[in-house]
Amino acid sequence: MNRKDFSSPLDLKQVQITDEFWGREQELVRQEVIPYQWEALNDRVPDAAPSYCMRNFKVAGKMMHRKKAEGEGFVEPAYTFRGFEALPEDPKNPDPDKFYGFVFQDSDFSKWIEAVGYSLINHPDPELEKTADEAIDIVCAAQAENGYLDTYYIINGMDRIFTNLRDHHELYCLGHLLEGAVAYYQATGKDKLLKAAERFADFVAEKFGPEDGQCKGYPGHEIAEMALAKLYELTGEKKYLELSKFFLDMRGTKPYYFDLEEKERAEHDGRPYKAPDPKELRHWYHQAHLPVREQTEATGHAVRAVYLYSGMADVARLTGDEEMFAACRRLWKDMVQRKLYVTGGIGATHLGEAFSFAYDLPNDTAYSETCAAIGLAFFARRMLEIEADSNYADVMEQALYNTVLAGMALDGKSFFYVNPLEVVPEACERDERKRHVKAVRQKWFGCACCPPNIARIVSSIGAYVYTQSADTIYTHLYVGSTLNCTINGTAVDLKLESGFPWNGSAKVTVHTEKAAEGTLAFRIPGWCRSHRAVTAAEVQERTEKGYLYLTGTWKDGDTVELDFPMEVRCLTANTKVREDAGRLAFMRGPVCYCMEEIDNGKNLHLLRVDTEKLCAMGIDKAVGVEKSSELGHEMWILKVPGRRLEETTDKESLYADYAPAASTEVTLTFVPYYAWNNRGEGEMSVWVRE
Question: FRET partner for 689 with CA separation of 20 to 30 A, picked from 12, 13, 167, 426?
Fold first, then answer.
């Protein structure tokens, strides 16, 4: 690790998104998603799964108020376990004093307030800010005197806090609370929620650590690691970084902490404890099978994994931990070279929402959780902060333009939790192996982690466009924007104009009152076969790890014009990916494409690409690229020469003697993957037979 290569994201207040594509997504989040999610958090969306989130904070707040009023006369509730998800027996008449929902329900608010904070930076909104302030008042009123803030235990009984770190997500809720509080403080300067989050973090820092009497556990669901690093960078308080590092250092050490706490729970409950079979792989699910510096394979629950790796990258950068960074590199390589969908999704199996084995990437049973793709972007950005390597930015771009955006409908009112690469609606309904796959987006989820996650990353997209060192501004994504920054202490404004994701042109204009010495670095996308950069500035040019570095003296009005030709690519998968053998996928620039039934008719499995024509004419001539507004806003679609196999004429016979398959010439229509299922229910497929 070379600290001279490190860079940092810019304060979002320094970045103003002007991009037509992402500006539209941000406005959609601001006008539709954030208000919609606020209604969902308050259980006011008809026919949607209840959240109980804000209700729980109100119940806990009333309890804290009563405790303060009654003083020593207050009787603390004794902990009662009511399940990982507690639901009222009569949904219309829930008990006014009970907790409902998942054990991690508090995190829904935290992700919402984080999205609100980022949105307010982009677009000040007094009414939204007023709503957020009122919500914060409700949340802070629920905090215990000692700083603890998790309504599941506050309501159910705090005598058993931190006794089930594996399953009960207290540290996960802490992590999201910190993320949300930091975002809202940075947006508004208001610190009420930040102070509450710090008090909770301080309480945790007292309870966990290497000293005698402190708990030696770590989160069952990671995020606290990167959230504590973020809090450290904001406050400068080393104890938060030390706590993050402690969680990482303890993870995967033996004896396994999750086994120890299970034994203690059994003894407390007076039930027999059965020692686990050492051959079981259950610790892999939590990435707790090995110490983090020894891990080589991306495994277990995919969201947990990339949240962990993001925290590892943060701590590696902040502490200069070479061994930790080496582990991050290994895990990244395993993930993107063996376990990454062409759509930028990760997590192949619904069993544990997890990574499967190498090259196991099924299409019709894919899990590919939206949150996992978001976490992949988190990890990629943090690796870019350590070293500018276009591989990280390419994957980040791939995830953002495809799986992340596919998780939200074009109107922002429904969502995918799972992102398959092939869908047959009847199979989703009748094949229990595919029950997790939905043919249409859902209004909401009882486990609603994905919708607010989408809102927060779309609203903070500016944090992924640039990073900065003392003398270099890195452009990782070509998202139209203005940037206020300094290069070697000289104030500089950059204006980035971009045609992405539909054309590969980009232009950067420098505005500065006096000449600035330094470097502008631009990612050369891995999907382009050639590139062109034109500037009249007096600069030296070099290329390293997929970045073009232009170093010299920048004057007011200097421009850099970039062109990355967006040629249609026809992709094949590694032959070890059994599901994609003999099949092709299409991408153009960062956008992955798919076929839908509405354009191509039923039985997509009967369609194939006319590879003879593709080879004879060349992809550029054979594949048509057309502008379309059918899906509500302009996007580019593909017209690919293909053939449709004729259906069996003898419908009474299931099998028949072989004869060469007859087919008819057709034109296949491909739409951007992120835009599928916005015109009704139907079949969909990314991969098509050759």
Answer: 426
Separation CA 346–CA 334 (nearest Å): 12
From 53, 328, 449, 450, active-site residue: 449
Q: Let me know if 592 is a catalytic residue.
A: no
Note the pLDDT tens digit of each residue in 403-437: 999 999 999 888 888 999 999 999 888 888 888 88
Whether the per-residue pLDDT at 170 is higher than 80: the answer is yes
Sheet holding 490-498, edge to edge: 15-17, 481-487, 490-498, 505-511, 559-563, 532-535
> pLDDT, tens digit, for every residue of 609-639?
999 999 999 999 999 999 999 888 889 999 9
Residue 192, token pair as written in the block: 């009420």
Question: Is 517 known to be catalytic?
Answer: no
Residue extents of the structural domains in the chain: 49-217, 469-563, 568-689
In the CATH hierarchy, which fold is given to the domain comprising 469-563? Maltose phosphorylase, domain 3 (2.60.420)
The angle, 0 to 180 degrees and rounded to 10, between the axes of the packed helices 238-250 and 302-319 is 130
482 φ/ψ angles, rounded to the nearest 5 degrees: -115, 145
The residue from 353, 385, 422, 579 that is catalytic is: 353
The answer to whether 115 and 121 have CB atoms below 8 angstroms apart is no
Query: pLDDT digit string (tens) for 358-399?
Result: 999 999 999 999 999 999 999 999 999 999 999 999 999 999
